[in-house]
């Protein structure tokens, strides 16, 4: 009986040890894969736009709708950090001062005076909209 016990106990001990080592290694690998996936940087709104359009764009930064002419010319003045850009508009609702920026690609259907958004341009001076994170 003692001989069998000397044989069974080490085998049992080795089996349990191997099982625990395998479980620990699996847990470590899962944790490493999860942390690598979560640590990969998410793309900014500008980078997402660039990737979606597959174009090399220049980020003009944050644009602010500063002034809108609703009479005669129907145009809006967008101010960025370095420049003022004038866009033609289409009036949607005169009472609420709601309008659409006609030459702004990838933009929402309507804007209001004071709206802020990201502005980008390409080599042909087309302008592109992207949302900015508000804090």
Radius of gyration: 30 Å
Task: Name the helicity range.
Answer: 25-40%
- Major pleated sheet: 7 strands, mixed
Mean pLDDT: 85
Give me the count of strands: 7
Helix/strand-derived category reads: alpha+beta
Strands ordered across the widest β-sheet:
4-3-2-1-6-7-5
Spatial gap, N to C terminus: 75 Å
Uncertain residue ranges? none
Tell me what portion of residues adopts beta-strand conformation: 25-35%
How many separate helices? 2
Query: What is the overall shape?
Result: rod-shaped
Series of H and E elements: HHEEEEEEE
Structural summary, described in words:
By secondary structure, the chain is of the alpha+beta class. 35% of the residues lie in helices and 32% in strands. The chain has helices at 2-39, 45-53, and strands at 58-69, 75-79, 84-93, 98-101, 104-105, 116-121, 127-130. A hairpin with a 5-residue loop joins strand 6 and strand 7 (127-130).
Write the layout of secondary structure elements.
Layout: H1 2-39, H2 45-53, E1 58-69, E2 75-79, E3 84-93, E4 98-101, E5 104-105, E6 116-121, E7 127-130
Parallel strand pairs: 5-7
Antiparallel strand pairs: 1-2, 1-6, 2-3, 3-4, 6-7
Question: What structural keywords apply?
Answer:
135 residues, rod-shaped, 7-stranded mixed sheet, alpha+beta, single chain
């Amino acid at each position: 009986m003692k001989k069998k016990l000397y044989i069974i106990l080490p085998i049992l001990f080795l089996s349990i040890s191997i099982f625990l080592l395998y479980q620990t290694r699996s847990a470590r690998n899962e944790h490493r894969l999860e942390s690598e996936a979560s640590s990969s940087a998410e793309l900014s709104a500008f980078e997402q736009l660039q990737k979606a359009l597959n174009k090399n764009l220049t980020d003009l930064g944050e644009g602010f709708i500063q002034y809108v002419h609703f009479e005669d010319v129907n145009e809006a003045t967008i101010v960025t950090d370095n420049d003022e850009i004038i866009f033609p508009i289409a009036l949607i609702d005169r009472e609420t001062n709601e309008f659409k920026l006609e030459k702004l690609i990838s933009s929402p259907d309507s804007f209001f005076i004071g709206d802020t958004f990201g502005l980008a341009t390409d080599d042909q001076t087309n302008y592109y909209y992207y949302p900015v994170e508000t804090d």
